[in-house]
Amino acid sequence: MRQAQLARKTKETDIQVAVKLDNIGTANIDTGIGFFDHMLTALSVHSGISMDIAVKGDLYVDGHHTVEDTGIVLGKALGEALGDKSGITRYGSAFIPMDEALAFCSLDISNRPFLVFQGTFTNAMIGQYDACLTEEFFRAFAFNAGITLHVNMMYGSNDHHKCEAAFKAVAHALKTAVTPLEAGKTLSTKGVL
């Protein structure tokens, strides 16, 4: 079974993450930021990747370290669970609507990390979640998992809907990309990723 368990402790955060790629997407998430928990739960459920995430962060400062460091550890855990990344579909794309909002994601699990993030929020905060940290999370996640990640919050008026559509678009693209190929070979003209 493709799975990984990682812990990372700094002066700012104490994080434990466990992922199982071949599961049913059960989520046990506690970061101390309710809306972020909601987004990570959506990422787990819609990707089919089970995630246990426990975070104790310096929320008395703000949510930045908690959100970014969670992206780092979750990305590393995903990368470890994928091993050498051979035998996977590798690419995934998804359009996800949520009421008036529409988001698109396209990704490549390539060992060439990159992030293109397009979209804006109307308000600074969604509950206790700093909306600008969405891009920080995806950057940390992509760079630590070895993913080329493009996320586009195409339109929408409700920040909750726009953000959730983006997380779900990433989830559905990821679900496709981590699916094993029948042949089990590396999808690359080089023969390796």
Automatic annotation (TrEMBL):
<keyword id="KW-0963">Cytoplasm</keyword>
<dbReference type="InterPro" id="IPR000807">
    <property type="entry name" value="ImidazoleglycerolP_deHydtase"/>
</dbReference>
<keyword id="KW-0028">Amino-acid biosynthesis</keyword>
<dbReference type="GO" id="GO:0000105">
    <property type="term" value="P:L-histidine biosynthetic process"/>
</dbReference>
<dbReference type="InterPro" id="IPR020568">
    <property type="entry name" value="Ribosomal_Su5_D2-typ_SF"/>
</dbReference>
<dbReference type="Pfam" id="PF00475">
    <property type="entry name" value="IGPD"/>
</dbReference>
<dbReference type="GO" id="GO:0005737">
    <property type="term" value="C:cytoplasm"/>
</dbReference>
<comment type="similarity">
    <text>Belongs to the imidazoleglycerol-phosphate dehydratase family.</text>
</comment>
<comment type="pathway">
    <text>Amino-acid biosynthesis; L-histidine biosynthesis; L-histidine from 5-phospho-alpha-D-ribose 1-diphosphate: step 6/9.</text>
</comment>
<dbReference type="GO" id="GO:0004424">
    <property type="term" value="F:imidazoleglycerol-phosphate dehydratase activity"/>
</dbReference>
<keyword id="KW-0368">Histidine biosynthesis</keyword>
<dbReference type="InterPro" id="IPR020565">
    <property type="entry name" value="ImidazoleglycerP_deHydtase_CS"/>
</dbReference>
<keyword id="KW-0456">Lyase</keyword>
<dbReference type="InterPro" id="IPR038494">
    <property type="entry name" value="IGPD_sf"/>
</dbReference>
<protein>
    <recommendedName>
        <fullName>Imidazoleglycerol-phosphate dehydratase</fullName>
        <ecNumber>4.2.1.19</ecNumber>
    </recommendedName>
</protein>
